[in-house]
Structures are given as structure tokens and as C-alpha cells.
Design goal:
Largest sheet of chain A: 7 strands, mixed
Largest interface: A-B, 31 and 24 residues
Order of helices and strands of chain B: EEEEEEEEEEE
Number of strands of chain A: 11
Structural class of chain A: mainly beta
Radius of gyration of chain A: 13 Å
Order of helices and strands of chain A: EEEEEEEEEEE
Radius of gyration of chain B: 14 Å
Distance between the termini of chain B: 36 Å
Strand content of chain A: over 45%
Helix content of chain B: under 10%
Number of helices of chain B: 0
Number of strands of chain B: 11
Oligomer: heterodimer
Helix content of chain A: under 10%
Strand content of chain B: over 45%
Shape of chain B: globular
Structural class of chain B: mainly beta
Distance between the termini of chain A: 34 Å
Number of helices of chain A: 0
Shape of chain A: globular
């Protein structure tokens, strides 16, 4: 039983398209996150979501929007995809104090 | 300058050697994490520290809050320890904010 699962694992799409990446956690964690790992393997926070409170990293373009239908899900929607959006996107979750940090296996997004 | 600095960036060692990876940070933190990313890409949380020292198997992590420094040690290193080790901090500002990462240490253990 995967603790944090994201789908799809790979996503290849054309510039200008709109796409979504799904994330679900079955750990009962209070907080979920989206991270972006660039081509140099550097990880950076995009969003965190806790109890209907969304915190957005100011560097994230507003083409990216997280949607949380319930506590166990935090999906990532991306509009008007650009070449620079190509990266690996990781979903993660943790308990309220930050312990129990668990990552999904990542979604490799390639924009062509 | 990144808020979280790791050294070395790359480390190649022989099987059995004692490994140390260092992490320094410049912000107030509520916790520090050590993560492991294998060549397949998955990320695993190894430790979360807010003070002192933790041990799990051959891995030991220490933190000195006053000096804003943490170390990850691997005893009796093995080729399966080859991975990228990432230090990450949770700022003490509170709220549902995420982790700030170092750039990682790429460790290769040769048989």
C-alpha cells in the first residue's frame, strides 16, 4: 500500500496545453506539499496545504494551482505549459509538526 | 547564497569507509531533515532532528543548533549507500510552509 502516490509517473505534453498531476496520501497526515526538482536536481517548495490554508512560494507562476478536494488529496493543475516547466514534480505529506515526512515517487514532466 | 549549504558536493569512497556529510544553514529552524535520493529518483526521509543526535542502523545524524550545523555519518559504508543525500530545513516561522533544501551530496561507494 503506497503511502504517497502520484500519477502519472511520466507526462509528455506540448507547449500551451493544460495538465494535472494527482497526489493522494493514506497516512492521515495534516499537511501536503508540492516540490519541483529542476534539471540540476535542486528541490524547491512550490506549495504547502494544511487545514484549508494554502501557502504559495512567491516564485511560482500563477499558471500553477493546487486543488485539494479533501485532506488526503492535493492535485497540481498547470495551465499553458511552457518549456521551462519541464522538471520532476514531487508530492509529499507530513504530520502537523513536520515529522513523518513522506515523498511520492515523482512525476517527470516533459514539455515539448 | 543558498540558505542551506552542504559539503562536499561529490564524494567517492571505498567500501567500509566512514563517511561524513556536512550541512550549514543560515536561518532559524524548527527542524532539520536528512533525505536520501536514489538513482531511480525516489526520495526517502532518513532523519528529522531538532536537537542532539539520532541513530538508525549504520546512519548517525547530529545537529548543533547554536552553530547552525548538522552532520550525517555513515559507518561501514556499502555500495548500496550510493545516492544523493540532501539536507533540508523547516523554517521556524511556523505555518504550513515546506522545506528549504541544500543542493545535495552525491555519494558513490566503490566496492
Amino acid at each position: 500500500d503506497t503511502a504517497v502516490s502520484q500519477t502519472p509517473k511520466y507526462l509528455v505534453t506540448q507547449m500551451g496545453n493544460d495538465k494535472s498531476i494527482k497526489c493522494e496520501q493514506n497516512l492521515g497526515h495534516d499537511t501536503m506539499y508540492w516540490y519541483k526538482q529542476d534539471s540540476k536536481k535542486f528541490l524547491k517548495i512550490m506549495f504547502s496545504y494544511n487545514n484549508k490554508e494554502l501557502i504559495i512560494n512567491e516564485t511560482v507562476p500563477n499558471r500553477f494551482s493546487p486543488k485539494s478536494p479533501d485532506k488526503a488529496h492535493l492535485n497540481l493543475h498547470i495551465n499553458s505549459l511552457e518549456l521551462g516547466d519541464s522538471a520532476v514534480y514531487f508530492c509529499a505529506s507530513s504530520r502537523d509538526r513536520g515529522d513523518g515526512y513522506t515523498f511520492g515517487s515523482g512525476t517527470r514532466l516533459t514539455v515539448v | 547564497k543558498n540558505e542551506v549549504e552542504q559539503s562536499p558536493q561529490n564524494l567517492t569512497a571505498q567500501e567500509g569507509e566512514f563517511i561524513t556529510i556536512n550541512c550549514s544553514y543560515s536561518v532559524g529552524i524548527s527542524a532539520l531533515h536528512w533525505l536520501q535520493q536514489h538513482p531511480g529518483g525516489g526520495i526517502v526521509s532518513l532523519f528529522m532532528l531538532s536537537s542532539g543526535k539520532k541513530k538508525h542502523g549504520r546512519l548517525i545524524a547530529t545537529i548543533n543548533i547554536q552553530e547552525k550545523h548538522s552532520s550525517l555519518h555513515i559507518t561501514a559504508s556499502h555500495p548500496r549507500d550510493s545516492a544523493v543525500y540532501i539536507c533540508a530545513v523547516r523554517n521556524s516561522g511556523g505555518g504550513a510552509d515546506g522545506l528549504t533544501f541544500g543542493k545535495g551530496t552525491h555519494l558513490i561507494i566503490q566496492p
